Task: structure prediction
Amino acid sequence: MQPTARDRWVFIIKWGASVIQIMGYTATGFGWTPWNIYLFLVGVLGWFTVGALWNDKALMLVHLVALGAMIAGMTSR
Result:
């Protein structure tokens, strides 16, 4: 079965978001703030998008909560 255009977009988004989140972990390890948070935000939004495209509510919930926690932390300073 041939992958659809949507399948290709999901593949690109999920791998792009994964690489960006790994970069966020690396930035955290080296103390590169606030770049680590920016990378995590992009990665979390990417994975939330994948969850929405897959209609996977658990994936969406985990990343929505992570996004909320990051935003709350960023605005509390």
